[in-house]
Q: What sequence folds into this?
């Protein structure tokens, strides 16, 4: 099969590898139709690691995946050959203390597509996954199916934040995750403010529900948001993974507000202004991917509750993967979501 391999820092190569095979009765062989290029993939591409998770080259990254069922194990009942599916990239054990507590996203034996030391990713023609990770999505295009992964994270984050019709929300970082949060928050409230450094993303935010969206390189976004909401906002979704946006989040929150940390910083550590946080009694919630929200994301799209199509801005062939990653890493050409189509 054709596979896109990460072979070094900033180095990708296309190679032919053996097609994977089903080894367990509950597994499914999937033909990958499209795979998204995510910010975490770019971390591995640029740095070779996220925290302690370091790449051992060569390695297949990628975890946002739309696929078609090619073969099923003997115990598979829910999906069949020919089904188009959204792939949930996190394989939980189902038996550890976290899984039993309903926290599959923090499973103690979790394996995640394209995560070093766990399992190879989906930037290849075929993968094998448990049936439980395959969600039938016949009404969705491959592009929509790819976007279900970031949308599921947004569904989970908005739920964790308890956004309501009275909530005032700020989203710092309007990439695919931030814009997905915007769409999900928009189902609850109209009082949403957003920021990003890419003008096309700012425009996308304005066109898809933000009352105001601005560029921190060109204006004081703390001043601008507080001008519109002098008492501060109830929830900030930090979707950029930058020290600057974390600082801004504390500034624009009202006392008793929540910061939802979704973005993944490139640096090992960040700092927090503990005195401002203490005086405001700020709650900080780390969002660990998502938990049982994939089907909800599919339903949101298939029922027309949200339209994610505007985020799919660039399509590439496997042989163009290096160009795709350079574009996403450099925020070039107004890219929001780039996909590799097999």
A:
């Amino acid at each position: 099969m054709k596979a896109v391999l990460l072979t070094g820092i900033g180095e990708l190569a296309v190679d032919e590898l053996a097609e994977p095979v089903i080894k367990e009765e509950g597994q499914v062989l999937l033909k990958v139709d499209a795979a998204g290029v995510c910010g975490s993939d770019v971390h591995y591409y640029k740095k070779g690691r996220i925290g302690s998770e370091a790449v051992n080259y060569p390695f297949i990254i990628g975890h946002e995946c739309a696929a078609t069922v090619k073969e099923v194990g003997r115990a598979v009942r829910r999906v069949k050959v020919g089904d188009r599916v959204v792939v949930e990239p996190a394989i939980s054990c189902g038996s550890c203390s976290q899984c039993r507590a309903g926290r599959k996203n923090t499973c103690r034996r979790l394996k995640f597509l394209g995560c070093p030391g766990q399992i190879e990713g989906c930037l290849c023609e075929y993968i094998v996954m448990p049936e439980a990770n395959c969600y039938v999505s016949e009404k969705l295009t491959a592009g929509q199916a790819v976007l279900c992964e970031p949308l599921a994270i947004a569904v989970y984050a908005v739920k964790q934040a308890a956004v309501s019709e009275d909530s005032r929300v700020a989203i710092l970082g309007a990439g695919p995750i931030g814009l997905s949060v915007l769409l999900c928050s928009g189902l609850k409230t109209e009082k949403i403010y957003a920021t990003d450094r890419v003008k096309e993303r700012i425009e996308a935010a304005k066109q898809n529900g933000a009352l105001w969206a601005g560029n921190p390189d060109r204006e004081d976004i703390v001043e601008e948001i507080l001008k519109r909401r002098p008492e501060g906002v109830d929830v900030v979704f930090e979707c950029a993974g930058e020290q600057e946006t974390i600082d801004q989040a504390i500034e624009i929150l009202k006392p008793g507000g929540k910061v939802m940390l979704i973005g993944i910083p490139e640096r090992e550590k960040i700092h927090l202004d503990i005195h401002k946080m203490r005086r405001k009694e700020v709650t900080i919630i780390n969002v660990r991917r998502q938990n049982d929200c994939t089907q909800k994301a599919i339903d949101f799209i298939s029922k027309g509750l949200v339209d994610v199509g505007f985020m799919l801005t660039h399509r590439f062939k496997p042989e163009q993967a290096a160009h795709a990653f350079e574009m996403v890493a450099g925020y070039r050409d107004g890219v929001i979501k780039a996909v590799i189509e097999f």
